[in-house]
Every structure is written in C-alpha cells, then in structure tokens.
Amino acid sequence: MANMLISEQVQAAEKPGKRSARWKNDVIGYAFVAPFLIAYALFVFLPIILGFGMSFFNWSLAGTGKDQFLGLQNYQEALTDPSFWGSLGNTVLFTVISTPLLMVFGLVLALLANMKIPGRWLFRTVVFAPYILPVSAVVLVWNWLYQPGFGLINGMLTAIGLKEVGWLSDPNVAMLSTVIVTIWWTVGFNFVLYLAGLQQIPQEVYESASIDGANSWNKLLHITLPLLKNTTLLVMILQVISSLQVFAQIFLLTGGGPNYVTRPLMQYVYETGFSSFRIGLASAMSYLFFILIMLISGIQFFLFYRKKGGEA
Amino acid sequence: MSSVVVSAPERRFRRPHISQVVAFLLLLFLMVLWAIPLLWAVDTSFKPEGETTVIPVSWIPTHFTGAAYENVLNAGNLLRWYFNSFLTSILITVLAVFFASLAAYALSRIPFRGSKFVFWVILAGLMVPGQILIVPLFSLMQLFGLVNTYAGVIVVQIASPIAVFIFKQFFDSLPHELEEAAVIDGAGRWRLYWQVWLPLSRSAVAAVAIFTFVSAWNNFLWPYIVVTGVDMMTVPVGLATVQTAYGIHYAQVMASAVLGALPALIVFLFFQRQIVQGIAGTGIKG
C-alpha cells in the first residue's frame, strides 16, 4: 500500500511535462558523470590517441621532429632492433618463471592459512604485509639481503659451508633473484584471492567426504582443487597480465643488468623515451607491447569464459 | 562465524593428525621466511654503521643505537617526501572517490540517455595497462606545463574506472524506496547524492578510499617520471635515490626503508580487513 502511494506521488511529482523531466535527467546525468569523464578523457583517452599519433613521427622529448612524418618507420625500427626482442624475451622469461611460482605459493599459503591452526591471523598478516610496501623500500631491503659477504643470505650460506651466490652479479642467477623478490612482495594478492575462493567452499562437502573415509590428501586433490578452478583461472589471467608489465622492481634492483640479461621491455621503452629522448619510437614500442598484452589477455579471457560456460 | 559453529564439535575429538603437524611446521617455516627480510631491515637500522658490514653476519647488535634514524631524519629529505606523498595521496583519494561516486550515482540512479554507453566506455578503461601511456602522458604534462608540479602527479591518477565499477555495484544493490521518499521531500539530485547515498555508502567509500590511498602512496613509475626535483619527490621516488646517497651506510639505508614503509604498514594494520576485502572482491567479481 505504502509503496503504491509513494510511486503514485512520484509520478504525480514528475507529471508536469514528461518531456522536460527527461531533458532534466539528461542534463543532470551528464553533469554528474562530467568530472570523471573529463579526467578520463584527458588522461586516458587523449594519451592513447596522442601516443598512437606520435608513433608515426620522429618525435623527440624536446619536441623536435613533431612534423617529421615517418610512416611505419618507428615500428619497423622497433621490430628489427635486437634490444627490443632481447628485452621482450626477458619479460616473457620473467612471466614464464614467476607466474607458476606465484600461483603455487599463493595457493599453498592460502591452504595453510585456511586451516584451523592457532595463530593463523598472524600468518595471514605476515604473508600479506609485503604487498602493501612501496617498491623502492622492498628493493632497498632485498638489495641489502643479496649483498656479497656481509649480506644476510650469503652470510647464512657461508655459515653452513656453502658457496656464496652472486645474486645480483651472476647473469645466470639475476633473473631468479628478481623473481624471488617479486614472489615475496606480491604473493599476498594471489594469497587473498585463493583464500576468498577457499572460504566459498561449503564445509558440508568436506564433512560428507570424511564420512566416506577420504583423507586430507584425497580431499585436497578431489574436492578443493577442482572447486578452485575458477579462482585458479582468474589468478592466472591477472598474474600473466601483471608479470608482463614488470618494471620497477627489476629497474631498481639490477638496473636491467648484469649485461642487460634482466632488462624488461618496459624498461627499454622507458630508456628509449626518457634516456635516448626518442618518444616517437618509444610510443611505437608501447603500442606493440599494448597489442601483445591485449592479445594475450584476450586469449585468456576467451579460455576463461569457455571453461566457465562449459561447467554450467 | 559459521566456522566457529563447525569447529566446536571438532575440538572435542581433536587428536593432532600427522598431516596437521606437518602443515603447522610448514606454516611456521613460511611465516619466519616471510618475516625475515623486514626483521633484518629493522635489525640493521638499529646497528651502528661500523657494525652492519661485519662478517660473519649477526642478528644481535653489540651497540644498539638510533643514530641511523637521527641522521636520516635530520640530514635527509625524508620529511619533505612524507609531506609530498601525504598531500598528493590525500588529494588523489578525495578527488578519485568524489568523481567516481558521483558518476556511479548517475549511472545507477538517473535514467539519462546514453548512460549504458558511458558505462561501457568507462569499463573499457579497465583493459588499458596504465604503463603503456607514460610516454604520451609525459608529453601532455609538458604541454600543460605540469612537469614537476603536484598537479602533474595528481591529475593523472584521479580517473579510476574500477572505483566507478565498485560504487555502481554498491548503489545498484541499495533499495529504490529510499530515493523515492527523498524525491517526495523535493530533494534535488545533488542533495540525494550528498545526503542520502554517500552516507549510506560509508563502507564502499571507505574501501575505495583506502585502496586508492595505498596505491597512490605506493605509485612509483608516474611520480618518478613527472617529478624532476628532489624537493618534489614522493616517498617511493625519494627512496629510490637513497641507495646512491648513503652507499655503504646500510644502517641509514635500512632506516630510510623502514621509515618509508611505515605509513603504508600503519594504514595496513588499521584497515587490513577493508584492503583484503577489496582484493577478494576482484576475485568474486570474476
């Protein structure tokens, strides 16, 4: 009754000239989205278009070469540049090593944190806390841990009679060192996603499995992991996209060294634009990278929704 | 809540199974492993400089001292960087929350023509990896004369599509009756937004605000590019210069790292629940 009355009154209130009410909604609606849309247009859309335009010119950071149209020359230069491919290879290598490790660690940590163990809140806090730290603080700490001689890790290795490792100086190890830092720093994100997935599994499923005589290992293998499939796919998609964009921790920890073996593509783009001052070329590289990321996430989303659909 | 109910009867029969013991030991091991880097950083920061690079390494300082902190705070630029970070992060948070909630309110409650299209355009922004835009964004900043200004740091970070998405989902879930009652009172849309919807959405506002603040505080790449002077640096950008400045004075380097990490850690300890729920929300959405 009361509801009907209210909606009647609302209609009555809106009655004088339905046309004007509609216009009023349009005006107010756009006025409300305007502040966001203006910021969005200026700092997301405009750079997308500007960057695309710049990629066809010999544009420099100082602004020279703005009128020197190059056609596809920047793209050609990027695609025939061994350093472009080399750093793209490093980015792919980083993604291939870090993604499975970050997924497995996230899952194992979440499984442990989900058990009824005293003190698990402390475990959750300790494991998640690094995620909240600024990258430069993380790198300062790990650079210190990785030092030869008096660094904690090498100090502990030599204390138990092992040989020192050149964490940041050995070209065969440096990439692994950046992956270790990344796991410590960012696993909290995957950890939380997995924990949320675990907490959505109803307890009754486990209880009936226990009655059937299943042990913990069986339950993990035949109940938990299959039920976490969607979470796993989501974690994988987000992790691949974020690993492909790796930049700051490597840039600050190794500077891309030794001998460029850890330099990721984003760092090469940055250097091309802000050290070599060739922002036209850097824009072309950004766009190639953009296309790659879109392609990979597109494939992943396709697989994600196909699997999800197949389940229903 | 439900876990409490479930665990009560279990507890009566509890005989620690071997797999539980193994799991507990693994948990303990991983926790220590995860804690060591930060503990070591704090430990180092309280050592006298001469003691940090002694071999063999030792956890126990023979002379416990706060000298590194004194040096860093007196001689360094850290306080200035704190100020810059607080100012920019707070303004980014206020503007981002305001713009996003206002837009989301209109998209959720005002039936204006083209609102669906606007929403899709905003959602498309979620697909754009921000790093790709740094080169043209810097050119824009040159054009607008915003290089090495607070405005240059701020404006680029205020349009957050994910915030619009979260607010819209939240507004969509609230009952319509609330609004109808207010319409009868003759309240305008602005008053509805400001006096009804925002107060009702305190939990969503808090979640978005905390998340935005932490991301803005921790953002490295953009301030690193747009800021050129030492006195304009934010904490993460300034910290990146500390290693070169202090070199082998590791106590001071670690004191800087600890002080630089502290505000984010404090925010985290106070708002752990909101931050964790914010991330978990991404998962449930998918």
UniProtKB/TrEMBL annotation, chain A:
The chain crosses the membrane at residues 27-50, 92-113, 125-146, 173-196, 233-257, 277-305. InterPro entries: ABC_transporter_permease (IPR051393), MetI-like (IPR000515), MetI-like_sf (IPR035906). It is a multi-pass membrane protein. Pfam families: BPD_transp_1. PROSITE patterns: ABC_TM1. CDD domains: TM_PBP2. Gene3D superfamilies: MetI-like. It is found in: Cell membrane. This is Sugar ABC transporter permease. It comes from Thermosporothrix sp. COM3.
TrEMBL record, chain B:
It is a multi-pass membrane protein. The keyword Cell membrane applies. It holds the Pfam family BPD_transp_1. The keyword Aminoacyl-tRNA synthetase does not apply. SUPFAM superfamilies: MetI-like. Keywords: Cell membrane, Membrane, Transmembrane, Transmembrane helix, Transport. This is Sugar ABC transporter permease. It comes from Thermosporothrix sp. COM3.
